[in-house]
Design brief:
- It is a single chain.
- By secondary structure, the protein is an alpha+beta fold.
- The protein is elongated and about 115 Å long.
- The relative contact order is 0.12.
- It has a 16-stranded mixed sheet that branches. The protein has a two-stranded antiparallel ribbon with strand order 4-5.
């Protein structure tokens, strides 16, 4: 009786069903180290972001340019009715204060040349930043105080100035002078009105004495160290911006699109033009009290990596379950066809080797390109599993098939990672083809 029970138990654990259950459970168990690998990728990515933030603080942050703006003070008279407590008579008292009116330019033209700097390295991380050489020109027409309901007799024309609001003041690397008609004025840094922008302002000048036909032409240049992005606010009645750069993967953003007819992107860089008219945005050309917040109208270009090494590693690791499952399925089908017994311990060793692919991938990527790291890690793991299969399967036919299958699988995943727009389509077609192949090769197996 005991011999019968032993034979029954022995036959169950040696059955195909039991082996399938054990292999399935092992696949789920191997998800644990795979999750640890994904957590490691996120940790290394976070460390990179911290380093990039630190370097950007030292070199220069994003650039947002808001200006130039003509600022002219005027006298504002406030009348207050005062009642005498004893006589109960009322009188009118007038208080004079100085207020400011702000006028945007009639024309504002900008040309910018942006050169990336790849030499700024911190540890194993290359922090790609840039230097932007920017040239501005345009003109101010006679300020229209009537629209602001201000009497021109109260205007202090001799105390006019030009201001510029811009981020990243500490990373400006050029002398700041603006030419107003034939007169040069220097910019000076002023206390900021908010935490985002810094302010540059010229000394006072007499607008009427300087103006020619009530107009003032201006031009000036600025050189910035920056990172992440360059953006502008289109305050000119007509604003044109032209950017040339050696950055290969720009991302145009903001409220206004670049001109498609002149936009060019190649392996050597990009060129982009914008032209914004006053009818394209809903704000005025003159204001009182303070310069308005117009950040919702910014436009420009982000100079970021579209997919960095850690994003590629993370995308690769998401296919880990697929790789482990299909590899085990190949071994299980070979075992079923050839009647060669593969121990669960041997499945475990193969699974650990597959997980090691991702730790090799991320560690090598940090010191080389993702493509090279993928090839090295893939060849190493496929070669290791193929050689191990020779000793397990006792022949060369099945190990060769395993090596070819794994090579095709890793190549397929690499192609999906490189694709962006068609990744889902190619992935779905590939998985369908894999399923069809598995169904074909398993059609004649007798599941006993």
């Amino acid at each position: 009786m005991q011999n019968s029970e032993t034979e029954t138990n022995k036959s169950f654990f040696q059955s195909t069903t039991a082996k399938m259950i054990m292999v399935g459970l092992l696949t789920l168990v191997l998800l644990i180290p795979l999750f640890f690998v994904q957590d490691l990728i996120r940790e290394r990515n976070l460390r990179k972001k911290e380093v990039v933030t630190e370097v950007s603080e030292l070199w220069g942050k994003e650039i947002t340019f808001y200006g130039p703006i003509l600022r002219i003070p005027y006298k504002s008279v406030t009348e207050t009715t005062v009642e005498d407590e004893k006589t109960k008579k009322t009188s009118i008292q007038r208080y004079t204060s100085i207020e400011y009116a702000y006028f945007f330019p009639e024309k504002l033209n900008n040309t910018s040349d942006v050169k990336k700097n790849t030499s700024l390295k911190r540890g194993i991380y290359n922090n790609v930043v840039f230097t932007a050489n920017m040239k501005f020109e345009g003109n101010f027409t006679k300020p229209n105080f009537e629209k602001l309901e201000i009497n021109e007799a109260d205007v202090l024309w001799e105390k006019a100035s030009v201001i510029v609001k811009t981020t990243n003041l500490k990373s400006i690397k050029s002398d700041l002078k603006i030419k107003l008609n034939n007169q040069n004025e220097a910019f000076e840094s002023k206390p900021a009105e908010d935490t985002y922008y810094g302010i540059l302002e010229t000394n006072s000048f007499d607008y009427k004495a300087l103006a020619t036909n009530n107009n003032i032409d201006f031009n000036f240049t600025m050189s910035y160290n920056g990172s992440d992005s360059i953006q502008f606010i289109p305050i000119g009645k007509t604003t044109t911006v032209s950017i040339d750069s050696d950055w290969q993967s720009p991302s145009f953003n903001g409220s206004f699109a670049a001109n498609n007819s002149t936009k060019k992107i190649s392996k050597t860089g990009f060129h982009a033009d914008w032209k914004i008219l006053d009818i394209n945005r809903s704000f005025s050309q003159q204001y009182t009290t303070k310069v308005p917040d117009l950040n919702e109208y910014v436009f420009g270009v982000k100079l970021l990596e579209t997919v960095d090494q850690y994003q590629q590693n993370e995308r690769a690791s998401k296919y880990g379950f697929l790789v482990i499952g299909l590899t085990f399925l190949i071994f299980f089908l070979i075992q079923s066809v050839s009647k060669i017994n593969i121990h669960i311990f041997q499945y475990t060793m193969i699974g650990i080797a597959l997980v090691m692919f991702y730790t090799l991938l991320i560690s090598i990527t940090e010191h080389s390109s993702f493509s090279l790291a993928y090839v090295i890690a893939g060849v190493s793991v496929v070669g290791l599993i193929t050689l191990y299969s020779v000793s397990i399967l006792k022949n060369r036919k099945f190990p060769a098939f395993i090596g070819i299958s794994l090579s095709v699988l890793y190549t397929f995943i690499f192609v999906i990672i490189q694709l962006e727009d068609y990744a889902l389509l190619v992935g779905s077609i590939g998985l369908f083809a894999i399923l069809a192949a598995v169904m074909y090769f398993s059609r004649k197996i007798e599941w006993k």
